[in-house]
Amino acid sequence: MEEETKFSSSSSQEKPQELALSLPNNIEKKEKKKPLMTIEGYPIEGLSIAGLETCIIFPSLDLAFDIGRCPQRAVSQNFVFISHAHMDHIGGLPMYVATRGLNRMKPPTIIVPTCIRATVEQLFEVHRQLDGSELRHVLVGLDIGEEIAIRRDLKVKAFRTHHRIRSQGYVVYQVKEKLKQEYRGLSSNEIKSLKSSGVKITDTTSHPEIAFTGDTMSDFILDEGNSDVLKAKILVMECTFVEERVTVEHAREYGHTHLYEEIQEAMSKLEAPLAGRVYTLTEGF
Questions:
Q1: What is the pLDDT of residue 8?
Q2: Helices (H), the chain
Q3: Chain centroid to CA 92: how far?
Q4: If 0-12 CB within 10 Å is exposed, 13-18 middle and 19+ buried, where does residue 170 land?
Q5: In sequence order, what E strands does 61-160 have?
Q6: What confidence tens digit (pLDDT) does each residue in 13-59 have?
Q7: Which of 89, 132, 235, 246 could form a disulfide with 241 if both were Cys (CB 3.0 to 4.6 A apart)?
Q8: Which tens digit of pLDDT belongs to each residue from 127-147?
Q9: Residue 147 to residue 171: CA distance in whole angstroms
Q10: Which Pfam families does the entry link to (predicted)?
Q11: For the chain, how many structural domains are there in total?
Q12: CATH code, domain with 148
């Protein structure tokens, strides 16, 4: 007699918790948030993909530079600084403002080059007509060399960059008030008395902490008015082209920086003892 072959099938009476055991762990557990990159004490996050989107976020300063597609983590920043009007740097602006409105957050402050301020306001008006949103915000035009205070101890200054269209970068300064030398050693009551009588008892000092270029040719480095950019603790600068199949000339034609330029600039500043002993392998060997 042949042995009977038995087939088992799932019962419709299986308990839900038994089914749940086969689900991947990442569905049941929340993904742990990755720690942010921290440089010189400043957490940094964001992304920059050539031609698609750039958004660099400094959460401890409550600001973002450029907003090509409005990543979710940019929404919580109260300030956005726009370097220029190319879509991969400004395209996410309406969504940024709309999302903050949807979440009942306070209207953000947006800083743009003065020459595009009116056009950006028109952009918001078009979106208001399309979906009926208020899109409440504060729009500030900033010219090269002008400053805006974003916190009692922070100010931001626009500096000149060199792209295919009008563009500018931004330097964030830490601002400190120090008691003047002649008033040091006075009692607190004496200092309060001087202050209440209108005497300026402090000197204001500022130090460049962070600089952001946006899209630019490397020429900004040579601009005498940009000395603070190179003194900043952190310089976030573009480097769209890194491969030898794209020439420096091509990069400059489109208003961008090539990695080779940065290497050549660094080489030119080597001290004499090293100048003849350091070689760049930009073309292989």
A1: 41
A2: 16-20, 25-28, 87-90, 93-102, 117-131, 188-196, 227-231, 248-253, 259-268, 272-275
A3: 14
A4: buried
A5: 63-65, 79-81, 109-113, 138-142, 147-151, 154-160
A6: 444 444 344 434 443 344 466 778 899 999 999 888 777 889 999 99
A7: 246
A8: 999 989 999 999 999 999 999
A9: 9
A10: Lactamase_B_2
A11: 1
A12: 3.60.15.10
pTM here is 0.74
Q: For residue 216, tell me if it sits in a domain.
A: yes
State both tokens at 125: 């008006």
Residue 153: what residue type? Answer: D
Q: Is residue 30 part of a domain?
A: no
Contacts of 124 (CB under 8 A, 6+ apart): 94, 97, 135, 137, 139
Q: Does the residue 98 lie in any domain? A: yes
Residues of the domain holding 65:
35-173+205-238
The CA distance from 23 to 168, in Å, is 50
- Confirm whether 17 is domain-assigned: no
